[in-house]
Each structure stands twice: as C-alpha cells, then as structure tokens.
Amino acid sequence: MAKAKLKTEKTESSVEDFLNAIKDEQQRKDSFAIVQLMQQATGDKPKMWGAAIVGFGNVLLKYESGRELDWFKIGFSPRKQALTLYGLLGSEKQNALLEKLGKHKTGKGCLYINKLTDVSSPVLNTLLKNAAEKKK
C-alpha cells in the first residue's frame, strides 16, 4: 500500500524562529528546554513538522490497515492551552511513569503539561528516553 499523504510534513522552517515567536515568556523558555531534552533523548536535531510541531528523528509508521506514513520519533507543540508532547505514551512502562510525573493530562497519544516546573524532570527525561529508544 502507498504511503499516506499527510497535512503535517517535515519542513525546512527554522525551529529557533518558531520558538522565539512564542509570546508567553514561560512557555518560550520551557519550549527551548524541551528541545534540549528531546535532542538529548533522541540524538536527532529538531525539525519543524507543519507550522507548529517540533519533531525529532524519523520513523515509518505502519498501521494494521497497511497504511504507512513518515513521522517523527517524538515531538512537541507549544499550544495555547498547554505544551503538547507526542510519542511518549502507549506502553505499560510509560503509563507507570506517568503516575510519578506530576501535574499533567493525557489525550489520545498526547501528554499535556502546563509548564515544566509542574513535572518531575527525571521522570520526564526517562519518558523521553524510553520513547526514543523504542522507536530506533
């Protein structure tokens, strides 16, 4: 089956320019910190995916339907409501770590945190490393 065409694809836009344009100072600082943490966890440089997602690395996702698409290992987006982290959930090991993370919410495949000071840095680092390792 052919690869699916996504609206959100990797671009050559500047991650730094995107992050510097974040109006909220705390969210901007947290976003730069998350870039460092995700880069350390994956060993990959940050790339913009679409207009508002910073992703790290590449993986080929294969669905049961046979559909395939190019995506990032882990990523995040500084949304108005919260920092949205992608690719960290889905295993029992990761779910157990969430109990120790601190103040957060989860959605379908996403982890939402308001600010980095709300969560445990060591637990977040472990979540990031586990997710990146799983997708090598």
Structure notes:
The protein is of the alpha+beta class and 136 residues long. The protein has one domain: Aspartate Aminotransferase, domain 1 (Alpha-Beta Complex). It contains four helices and eight strands, in the order H-H-E-E-E-E-E-E-H-E-E-H. A six-stranded antiparallel sheet has the order 1-2-5-6-8-7. It has a two-stranded antiparallel ribbon with strand order 3-4. The chain is globular. It starts with 14 loop residues before the first helix and ends with a helix.
What would you call the shape?
globular
Count of helix runs: 4
Counted beta strands: 8
The structural class is alpha+beta
Task: Note poorly predicted spans.
Answer: none
Mean pLDDT: 91
As a percent range, the share of helical residues equals: 25-40%
CATH architecture annotation: Alpha-Beta Complex
Main beta-sheet annotation:
6 strands, antiparallel
Using only CA atoms, what is the Rg? 15 Å
Query: Could you name the CATH topology?
Result: Aspartate Aminotransferase, domain 1
Total domain modules: 1
Spatial gap, N to C terminus = 23 Å
Strand content: 15-25%
Q: Give the strand order of the largest sheet, numbering strands 1, 2, ... along the chain.
A: 1-2-5-6-8-7
Please provide the ordered H/E string of secondary-structure elements. Answer: HHEEEEEEHEEH
| CATH class group | Alpha Beta
